[in-house]
Amino acid sequence: MKIKRFFASDIRQAMRMVKDELGADAVIMSNRSVDGGVEIVAARDFDEQLIHNKLQKDAAERKAQNPEVKQPPLQDFAAENKSAQIISSTRKKGADGSVPPRPLRRDFDEYLGYAEKMQINRPRRLQPDPVQKPAPAVSAKIEEIPDEPAPAIQEKTVMSARAEEPVSVARENSANDQLIKDMFQELKSLKMTMNSRLSEIGWRQNSQSNPVRVELLHRLVDMGIAKNLSMKVAGRLSNYQTIDPAFKKAQEMLVNVLPVYNDALLDYGGIAALVGPTGVGKTTTIAKLAARFILKHGPRQVALITTDNYRIAAHDQLNTYGRILDVPVRVAADAEQLRNLIDGFADKRLILIDTAGMSQRDQRLAEQIQTLQHDDLRIRPYLVMSAATQYKAMKEIIQAFQIFQPEAGILTKLDEAATKGAAISALIEQRMPLSYVTDGQQVPEDLHVASAKQLIEQCAAESDQESDYNAILDYDDWVAQGYA
C-alpha cells in the first residue's frame, strides 16, 4: 500500500495530481484547506482493516505511555475526518462488531466530479481552518509512512508545479492561437487556389466556346476600359460571329453611355467656379475659358476671382493671365468677400472663380463649399479632372466632389494620358456629364467642347496602334491585366 499527500492551488488540480500519480483506483483518505490551496491524502492498494488495526495498536501504545493525554476514540476517527467520505460511507460494523475486510469504494472519477462541485459551490478559504485539523496522532502517523517523500523535496515539488503552471497554460494558449492562425492561412490559400483554378477553367472554356467575346475583351483592355464595364459590353455582344462588327458595336455602346453636357457657358456666360484636386489644371482652364469667351464677346465682359489662400504666390499665375487677357482679377478671402466681389462685377457677363486645389480626402472641402454657397447667387461648380488619373482615384475624386453638386466635368491633360479609357470608364460608371476637354497648354486653342464619339474613337485608334490583335490573349495575359 502507498499513501501520499498532495498539495495544489485548488481541489480540481489536486485530484488530477492524485489520478496521475496513483491512478484511477486511488482512495482519498482526507482533504483539507491549507494556506495557498488544498491538501489531499490518498492511498493506492488500500486495505482499511490493516490501517484500522495499526491505528488501534498505535493508539494503545501512546495511551500507555501518556495516560494523561486523552485520545479520541478510534470509533470516531471517521467522524473527525468527515472529508474522507469514502471510508466513512463504507465503514459499517458487522454483527460481531468487526470491520468488513474490504469497503465499497467510490469510483475515482465520480469523486473527482463531486469534489469539483463542492469547490465551485464553496468559497475558497485563504487561511486554514483550525477546527478541521485532524488529530495529531493520526497526522503524525501518516507522515511516518515510508512511501511518503521527504518534506523538503515535497515542498520543492509543489512550489515548482505552482510556478510552472501559468507558464504551461500560456504556452498552450499561444500554441492554440498559432494553430488557429495557421489553419486560417491554409484555408485562405486553398480558397485562392480554387478561385484561380476555376477562373482558368472558365477562361479556357470561354476561349473555346466564344472566341469573339475573348477577342473583344482583349481590345477593350487595350483601350483601358475598366473590368466591370468591359465584361458588361462583351457579354451583351457575345452573339456576334466576327470580331470587327462586334468591336464597332462596342464602340457605339460606349458612345451612347458616356454622358456629355451641352454647355452654353461660353455662349451666354454666367458665374462658374472650377473645383478639383491639386495639379489638374484649374487655373489654366480658367484662362482658356476666359480667352474663348473674349474672342466672342470682348474683354469687358469677363472678370476673374480666386479663393485660393492656401498656397504661397497662388495668385501670381491668375494675375499673369489677367494682364495678358486685359481682364480684372480679384482675391476673395471668405464667403462675404466673394459675394461683395460678385456684386461689384454685376456688369460682367462671365465671372470665373478659381478655387484652391484639394485632395479628395481633404477635410477642408466643407469650408470651400461654405465659401461658394449663396442662396441668391447661382454659382455653377465645374469639376476639373486629369485624364492621366488612375481609374480608382478618378472614381474617388468624383464621389468626394459630389458634395459640390457639379454642373459638369472638365477633363484635362488628354495629351499626357497613356490611355483615356480609365477616365472614360469612371465618367460612365459615376454618371458624371462631361462639358469640356483640354489637350495642351496653348490658350485658348487646346480647349474643346466634349464629344463622346471623338473620345471613344481616339481610344480605339490609340489601342490599334499599340496592339497586335493577331496575337492570342491567353489566361496569363488576362491575369496580368487584372481581369481574371
Explain what the structure shows.
The chain is 51% helix and 13% strand. The protein is α/β, with parallel strands linked by helices and 484 residues long. Among the domains are: 2-148, no CATH class; 261-450, P-loop containing nucleotide triphosphate hydrolases (Rossmann fold), CATH 3.40.50.300. The protein has an eight-stranded mixed beta sheet with strand order 6-5-7-4-8-9-10-11, with helices on both faces. Strands 1-3-2 form a three-stranded antiparallel beta sheet. Helix 13 links the parallel strand 5 and strand 6. The longest helix is centred in the middle third of the chain and has 59 residues, at 151-209. The chain is elongated. The model is unreliable at 69-108, 114-148, 468-473 and 475-484 (pLDDT under 50). GO terms for molecular function: GTP binding; GTPase activity; signal recognition particle binding. Residues 269-461 form the SRP54-type proteins GTP-binding domain. Necessary for flagellar biosynthesis. May be involved in translocation of the flagellum. It comes from Methylotuvimicrobium alcaliphilum (strain DSM 19304 / NCIMB 14124 / VKM B-2133 / 20Z) (Methylomicrobium alcaliphilum).
